[in-house]
Design a protein that fits this description.
Chain lengths: 178, 437
């Protein structure tokens, strides 16, 4: 029985406030969205930060998804120093011991939609990353089997992108390519 | 025929970096495209006598695959070496559809995802939107939501009892499970007007107050169920045939379950006491008393026993809800999100305008993003919503527990018999509407 414990002995998290008043954790800027803690991770540091998160007791990555901000008209809550890009990968982590959540947002430019795969650090992201690849066309480098998961293997386009219009695509009835 | 598609995933799995080393059976995940599998099937069998493995397709219309799950199995005789669940047959782009529907129409869309537990989908969507708007909902609405979702948990687990029994040859169990579930659905029909896909829990509260006589209906159900559960125990739990069929089948360790992001009964069957209702409470769960049921072996029998006992815990919770159900409004009186009462429309021009505005244009939700999760019968059901300030979600993502839990299946099936594969699929209890969305 591994009952989650209340004692916060595992708390080794580096939390500080830099000179300009921006809260940081794991070397990343932190914002709070409706009381939920969000870290904004630089794409190049993503796998290092994920390893740090795991070492710090965030023992499960529960969700990986993405957002295409192409048509977003509102204001995006980003800390200073983070340049908004078209895509954003959003990953949620959970700590069973601390009974807490943390969310990471990573900006992904439209001309190079790639990011390192979490598979080796959190293998439970296997299907979730495949789903994001399938529906957004974001490539996860290092994923063992980055293939379409929900759409047919020979589908063209990535349906959850904002420039993929609902109803404007004729249904594909062609035979599988081989 | 030898399948050599799998690249070795072992080389860079260093123990101090990442959870991959926690999955000793990761080679049992078959990584092969459907096109490649079709090519192999058409090619001539190799003359090599040592090639003993065979690729076999199971589903998507196999009766024990709970809908349209398809499995690609690599078999050595009757033993499953590697397997790959193939999904997407029920994919209807609900997340994309969600972006074109207003927040008022949203629950109608999401309720169709996990069709065995529709109220949970509505609940998580509504909670996420309410978190974005920042409105408080009346106490009675909270308790009605708890009552309805706990009843839904009972119905969902009864459905599992029925299908699990049927998959394993206890065919009479199918009839019993369905019989009890039907009683719960009848209660739902009385309250919401529909047996499934209710669109009952909406942003701001619930669609209608509980009807007259609801308490008697619930009490009747709570009296009817425990003796029936005792019958299930006699029929299945204590039976040597049942135990032989499930014990030690589809075993998964707690390390594997955590590394694979499994939640719900699969995680709890390994002994990890993790239930969002207790560990990250929502609604009014801190005010009710219940136990988190955990297993110890992580096998199919534990997963069966956990669900059976969770029905008992839900009955316990519903008893407390009956005692504590407060009086008051069943939906928020905030005119920003709630349409005016029907009677007001006849006497007030403003109310009529308001009514039209909410139903045609919808209400606006402030910019922001939020992730909210509830404990559905299958695990963590999450909803991530990004709003751009308009009346429709800019992005609406549902983290389906069935989808993520499906990843555990190849690990559980490794080196098991093909007959046990059916028991394992059943014990994972995937709802394909939620897997494919």
């Amino acid at each position: 029985m591994t009952e989650p414990t209340d004692d916060a002995e595992t708390e080794t998290e580096i939390e500080e406030t830099s000179e300009d008043g921006v809260e940081t954790a794991y070397g990343c800027a932190v914002t709070h969205s409706r009381g939920q803690r969000v870290i904004h991770v630089d794409r190049d540091r993503w796998l290092d930060v994920a390893s740090e998160l795991l070492a710090d007791g965030w023992n499960m990555c529960v969700d990986v998804t993405a957002v295409d901000y192409l048509a977003h008209v509102g204001r995006r809550e980003l800390p200073p120093g983070i340049a908004p890009e078209r895509f954003e990968v959003v990953a949620s982590f959970i700590s069973h011991a601390r009974r807490d959540r943390i969310r990471a947002r990573i900006q992904i430019p439209a001309d190079d939609p790639t990011i390192g795969s979490l598979y080796r650090i959190y293998p439970g992201t296997d299907y979730l990353e495949r789903e994001v690849f399938d529906l957004f066309g974001i490539t996860f480098i290092g994923h063992p089997d980055l293939s379409r998961i929900l759409m047919p293997e020979n589908w063209e386009g990535h349906p959850l992108r904002k420039d993929y219009v609902v109803g404007a695509i004729p249904v594909q009835f062609k035979a599988p390519a081989n | 025929m030898t399948v050599t598609e799998n690249k070795s995933e072992t080389e860079s799995a260093s123990p101090d970096q990442g959870q991959l080393h926690l999955l000793p059976r990761r080679e049992s995940v078959l990584r092969m495209s459907e096109v490649r599998a079709a090519e192999i099937a058409e090619s001539e069998p190799l003359a090599d006598e040592n090639d003993q493995t065979m690729l076999m397709n199971m589903g998507p219309s196999h009766p024990s695959t709970h809908g349209v799950l398809r499995l690609m199995l690599e078999l050595d005789g009757e033993t499953v070496i590697r397997s790959k669940p193939i999904i997407g047959y029920l994919h209807t782009g609900m997340e994309k559809t969600g972006e074109t529907l207003t927040y008022l129409q949203g629950p109608t869309n999401v309720t169709r995802m996990d069709y065995a537990a529709p109220l949970f989908n509505e609940l998580v969507f509504s909670l996420a939107v309410e978190e974005l708007i920042g409105i408080e909902i009346p106490e009675r609405a909270t308790w009605i939501r708890m009552l309805m979702t706990e009843m839904n948990r009972i119905a969902s687990h009864l459905l599992f009892m029925a299908t699990n029994g049927m998959d394993l040859g206890a065919v009479s169990m199918m009839i019993y499970g369905w019989r009890e579930r039907e009683q719960v659905l009848r209660f739902f029909e009385k309250v919401t007007g529909l047996r499934m896909n209710h669109n009952y829990i909406r942003v701001g509260g619930v669609a209608a107050d509980l009807p007259d006589g609801w308490r008697d209906d619930v009490l009747h159900l709570l009296e009817m169920l425990p003796p029936r559960l005792e019958e299930y125990d006699i029929l299945m739990t204590g039976q040597p045939i049942w135990r032989e069929r499930l014990q030690g089948v589809g075993v998964i360790s707690s390390e594997e379950a955590i590394a694979l992001s499994a939640t719900g009964p699969i995680l709890r069957s390994t002994g990890v006491a993790w239930d969002l209702r207790r560990d990250m409470p929502y609604l009014a769960y801190p005010e009710v008393d219940f136990d988190v049921v955990v297993g110890s072996y992580g096998d199919s029998f534990d997963r069966y026993a956990i669900r059976l006992n969770e029905i008992r815990e839900s009955i316990r919770i519903v008893h407390q809800i009956l005692d504590k159900m407060p009086k008051g409004d069943y939906r928020s009186e905030d005119r920003k999100v709630t349409p005016p009462p029907r009677a007001r429309i006849d006497e007030s021009m403003e109310a009529l305008i308001h009514h039209f505005k909410i139903f045609t244009e919808g209400f606006k939700v402030p910019e922001g993003e939020v992730y909210v999760a509830v404990e559905s019968p299958r695990g963590e059901l999450g909803c991530y919503i990004v709003s751009d300030g308009g009346p429709k979600p800019y992005r609406m993502h549902i983290r389906g527990p069935s989808f993520v839990n499906l990843q555990t299946m190849p690990h559980m099936m490794a080196d098991s018999l093909i007959a046990d594969a059916v028991a394992i699929i059943s014990s994972v209890d995937p709802i394909l509407g939620e897997v494919d969305r």
